[in-house]
Amino acid sequence: MRKYNVAIVGVGAVGIEILKILRQRNFPIENLRTFARSSRTMEVDGQSYKVEAIADENFDGIDIALFAGTEGAKGASVLYADKFIKKGAIVIDNGNDFRLKGDVPLVVPEINKDKISENKGLIANPNCTTIQAVVALGGIYKNFGLESFILTSFQATSGAGKQAAVSLWDEAKQVVDKNKDADFNSLDKRIDGKPACFDSQIAFNVSPQIGSFGEDGFTSEEWKVVNETHKILGDDSIKISATCVRVPVFTSHSEAIYFTTKKDASLEDLEKALENSEGVKYLRDELCYPLDAEGKDEVFVARLRKDPARENSFWLWCVSDNLRKGAALNAVQIAESL
To answer: Which residues are catalytic, by number?
Structure first.
């Protein structure tokens, strides 16, 4: 088997997850290089890695470069992707900068793997919320079409980076520590001072804002679900609306999706489609929780039910590890397909 020279750009939560997954899946690596803003040595699962300062290095001989920036972070792929491509590498970018560019494939391998071959040196990894939704709905769309869907997400703090997850821990610890002698009716659930990562406290709280607000009142995260889904499925006719919420969970996003099919479909039809959907674990008679998905590859789907008030309209609930399938695993699957 041919082996490949692989680069990882960014060693935050997603970059570390990529390192783990490459080893777990025995990706055929000849030489592995890791890049970040500054040089250092780091350890992941007992293995030491040399991190190179990206501004000081050349990128000769790299076959695949995995850009592992935090969702929403700007700059790395804009500054360096073209330099890798000019040296002969194919770039798989987890950031938001190139997803909606017309000549850049936006890929979820379970759904549109055929688009990978259309790359001109750059392939985009979709937003974690979008990946989860299209995997959950992909088999249903293929068999019955989608007239519309409304998505409400409940997103883990790690989606905003490692420090955001740490802030949940720190805030929760502060609240618990200052209430250790209080009874339940007199708890002070607020932290002292300004939140470290979010506009509002996240411990014992939720925030109905992920990303920046537009003039229409929707956030950038919510529009990602709309625009990226249309591009991945190649179907702008689907009516999509979303509300994205940050919740006090460390890892794994949850989504409640209300959808209407174009063709007539029964619950039994949809159950069969979900059971045959690549990347989905359908739980017919069980519930699934964010903790169940942590460290797992699949998108878990449960609570499929019919809306008694509307024809061909249904609800489902799904959970997925946002760092894994929502980012790192999807990127590695694209590399495997290459």
So the answer is: 128, 253
